[in-house]
């Protein structure tokens, strides 16, 4: 499957792991774009059409939750598929993400199995 | 006690195993370690209480973690990649520890940093230290938190 995927994480290591995991579960033909925070992600989204945004939550300048809120209010981005990847585990946050129509939340560290689980409907929330 | 030692060992063990395929055991190493030549990582959280994690890793472990994460010899990695892989490890470990510490309560976690200064602390804060080792390479986690 070939699609445009935007990876948003302030850690270069984490972006590399996300890219590897998605490539291993079927996105080896996809084009990966990278941004290191929400502000850079919005700039990338204004330039390139994306099929999926995979974002961390805890980032400088603009965090992931603010990014997702902004995506949901943007005319072009309100229906964009979003997967959140985070080391934080929090019921309240999960509920907010669910209300923002996030396709899945994956806990770090990321593994191909966790990504595969999130990509099938019963693995997400 | 901030968290029981079994839960802390489990969080450390699972994080190192999942991220770097390293087998962690509790207790100090019997071998010689020189943490001053490695890295000291810290992460501060500010809610529902304020506290800091500080992780001291000797250079052997620093390189082993980076090599496992990147799948390359550490000589082929940039200094930025070496540091960043450790920061990501600290980030994941802190998230895991805080989830266990605060359960379903909302917590606010800062960003992981290489520690150059003394971490945020206070004489009245709770301070706990935990020693671990991977084979004969020892490392230490220090956890401080404001008293209740």
Structural classification of chain A? alpha/beta
Distance between the termini of chain B: 11 Å
Describe the sheet with the most strands of chain A.
5 strands, parallel
Which ranges of chain B are low-confidence, i.e. pLDDT below 50, for 5 or more consecutive residues? none
CATH superfamily of chain B: CheC-like
Could you state the oligomeric state of the chains shown?
A: heterodimer
Task: Describe the protein.
The complex is a heterodimer of chains A (125) and B (148). Chain A contains five helices and five strands. Chain A has helices at residues 12-27, 38-47, 64-73, 91-99, 112-119, and strands spanning 4-8, 31-35, 52-55, 81-86, 104-107. Chain A has a five-stranded parallel sheet, sandwiched between helices. In chain A, helix 1 (12-27) packs across helix 5 (112-119) and helix 2 (38-47) runs parallel beside helix 3. Chain B has 148 residues and is an alpha+beta fold. Chain B has helices at residues 5-20, 59-70, 79-102, and strands at residues 24-26, 39-47, 51-57, 108-109, 113-114, 126-134, 137-145. In chain B, strands 1, 2, 3, 4, 5, 6 and 7 form a seven-stranded antiparallel sheet that branches. At the A-B interface, helix 1 and helix 4 of A face helix 1 and helix 3 of B.
């Amino acid at each position: 499957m070939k699609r445009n995927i935007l990876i948003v994480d302030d850690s270069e290591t984490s972006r590399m792991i996300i890219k590897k995991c998605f490539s291993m579960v079927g996105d080896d033909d996809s084009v990966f774009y990278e941004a290191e925070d929400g502000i850079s992600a919005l700039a990338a989204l204004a330039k390139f059409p994306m099929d999926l945004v995979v974002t961390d939550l805890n980032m400088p300048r603009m965090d992931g939750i603010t990014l997702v809120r902004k995506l949901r209010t943007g005319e072009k981005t309100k229906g964009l598929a979003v997967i959140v990847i985070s080391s934080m585990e929090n019921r309240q946050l999960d509920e907010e993400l669910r209300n923002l129509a996030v396709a899945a939340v994956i806990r770090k560290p990321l593994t191909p199995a966790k990504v595969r689980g999130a990509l099938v409907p019963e693995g997400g929330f | 006690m901030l968290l029981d030692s079994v839960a802390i060992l489990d969080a450390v063990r699972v994080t190192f195993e999942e991220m770097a395929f390293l087998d962690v055991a509790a207790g100090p190493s019997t071998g010689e370690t020189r943490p001053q030549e490695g890295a000291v990582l810290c992460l501060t959280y500010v809610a529902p209480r304020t506290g800091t994690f500080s992780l001291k890793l000797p250079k052997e472990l620093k390189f082993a973690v980076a090599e496992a994460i990147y799948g390359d010899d550490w000589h082929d990695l940039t200094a930025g990649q070496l540091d960043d892989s450790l920061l990501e490890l600290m980030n994941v470990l802190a998230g895991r520890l805080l989830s266990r510490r605060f359960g379903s309560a909302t917590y606010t976690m800062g960003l992981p940093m290489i520690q150059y200064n003394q971490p945020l602390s206070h004489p009245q804060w709770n301070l706990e230290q935990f020693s671990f080792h991977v084979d004969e390479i020892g490392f230490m986690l220090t956890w401080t938190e404001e008293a209740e």
